[in-house]
Specification:
- It contains no helices and 19 strands.
- Strand 14 and strand 15 form a beta hairpin.
């Protein structure tokens, strides 16, 4: 597969906020250039990729062969773990300098093709240091969102559904949005697929995942996208642009929108 020249893509959360907010946008132009080894660190994008060497990764866009299957030919990072070349890849994302993130949102554009794609959400208390891999990792996990083709979406082991998504379809693109507000006595997190709130299967109320000790921490500031697990990690996953937002969200029951989607 040809690695093509990748146009710069910008994403922006459109949330009306009453206080200053921080937005982090991630694209894939020039990612990991000049790097080798099994751990790829990209401080500009606030990313570390663990478990996949650079030569096992590829990018697709409008001009690559084959082209990107994402809408508009958006650039995507491709994880393709095969029986002949298996690897367990974890993309670790630490979007904010601060360890205090009691309110905010994060969004991933994902296309699962084979195997279990998972977004893990949690907290990292270590000070931000772009040269230290540990600073990118989740120290204290809150919950995970699983997207496995042919199965229901899952959150922390609980089956979910939206108005239009009951089963994950291979080769379809899913916009995974996670919003949280931990400032109240009853902390809340909401997960959305393609802008629709995720409910527990067969129930009408939004699925509010258990937050455990995270509820008493300083918020959600570390995230991970992975393909498979230690024992079974063969599969294929496309990761498109990502974005994260730090600040209050007026309506937790509605997904914030991204531009250029």
């Amino acid at each position: 597969m040809k690695i093509a020249s990748i146009p710069l893509l910008f994403l922006c959360f459109i949330f009306p906020v009453s206080s200053p907010a921080e937005v982090v946008r991630v694209d894939w132009e020039g990612a990991f250039e000049g790097q080798t080894g099994s751990d790829l660190r990209d401080p500009e994008r606030r990313l570390v990729i663990v478990g996949a060497r650079k030569e096992t990764l590829s990018f697709v866009d409008k001009t690559s062969t084959p082209p990107s299957p994402l809408a508009g030919g958006k650039t995507a990072l491709v994880f393709d773990s095969t029986p002949e070349n298996p690897f367990w890849v974890r993309l670790c994302f630490r979007p904010f300098d601060t360890s205090e993130a009691p309110q905010g949102a994060v969004e991933f554009l994902l296309q699962p093709v084979q195997g279990r794609a998972e977004v893990q959400v949690g907290h990292q208390s270590a000070p931000w240091d772009p040269q230290v891999n540990q600073a990118y990792y989740i120290e204290n996990a809150a919950f995970d969102v699983g997207l496995t083709p042919g199965s229901e979406p899952m959150v922390a082991g609980r089956l979910g559904e939206t108005d239009s998504v009951t089963t994950i379809t291979a080769g379809e693109t899913y916009r995974v949005t996670i919003q949280w507000d931990l400032t109240h006595s009853q902390p809340i997190a909401r997960i959305f697929l393609n802008g629709e709130v995720l409910r527990e299967k067969g129930k009408g109320d939004p699925l509010n995942p258990p937050l455990g000790t995270i509820a008493g921490s300083k918020g959600l500031n570390a995230f991970r996208v992975s393909l498979g697990g230690p024992e079974d990690h063969v599969g294929r996953l496309l990761v498109g642009p990502m974005a994260a937002f730090l600040g209050s969200i007026p309506d937790m029951e509605q997904a914030g929108s991204l531009s250029d989607l």
